[in-house]
Amino acid sequence: MSTTTAVKVGGSILTADTDYTLTGNTLTIKKEYLATKVVGPVAVSIEFSAGIAATFIINVIDTPWIDPIISSVNFSSIFGSNPITAGKFTGWNSGSQYGLIELSFAQPQTFSKVKVTAYAQPDSTESYILYNESGQIIGRTTQMVIGESTFEIPVTNGTYSKLRVEVWVGEGRSWVNIVKVLLGE
Questions:
Q1: Is the pLDDT of residue 62 over 80?
Q2: What is the Cα–Cα distance from 101 to 94, expressed in whole angstroms?
């Protein structure tokens, strides 16, 4: 019986259990390894003890951002209306320099980063703290928001049923205004 002796991607030898796993006849190249590769086609070669190699091409793609379906929302606002239309987040303005919005997902979502598009007029330094459904902090950042700005916030990788975003303006006099929230792995 022939066994696997090496797995190569683009000519580089991968490390078992770090870069890939092999269970029975199933080879899984880990997303953490693939994230180090340039987007596009790459050759994968599996070498066997019988001296035979299997080579094939995979297409490395960028991980898409998820625009989750929202089942309900709680938010602070002096004015404003429901920021959810047909299950999608459509934007929210707190009406002040501080705000809190909690998005409840229709189905639990697995993610390790959140992409926020925010708007400030005038430009403002804003601090964001992200919480899970248990009230634990899963991510935080401070960003200079210039007009409409998009930025990523790394979070503790996990599966969550809610995302609470607390934001306040430090420097500047803009109201808190979140245009879009996307999830990524």
A1: no
A2: 9
Cα gap 151→143, rounded to integer Å: 8
H or E element that contains 31: helix 31-34
Q: Is 81 helix (H, G, I), strand (E, B) or coil?
A: coil
Give the count of domains, the chain. Answer: 2
Characterize 67-82 residue by residue with b for buried, 16 or more Cβ atoms within 10 angstroms of its Cβ, and e for exposed: ebebeeeebbbeeeee
Residues constituting the chain: 185
pLDDT in tens, 92-116: 988 889 999 999 999 999 999 999 9
What's the chain's average pLDDT? 91
pLDDT surpasses 80 at 120? yes
Percent of the chain, pLDDT > 90? 66
* Per-residue confidence (pLDDT) for residue 38, from 0 to 100: 82
Which domain range does residue 154 map to?
Answer: 70-184
Instruction: Indicate whether 173 and 96 sit together in one domain.
Output: yes
CA distance 65 to 88: 14
Judgement on whether residues 140 and 104 belong to the same structural domain of the protein: yes
Classify residue 65: in a domain, yes or no: no
Q: Does one domain contain both 78 and 162? A: yes
Same domain, 130 and 47: no
How far apart CA 36 and CA 151 sit, in angstroms, is 21
What global pTM score does this model have?
0.68
| Residue 116 located in a structural domain | yes
Q: How far is CA 109 from CA 45, 97, 153, in A?
A: 34, 29, 16
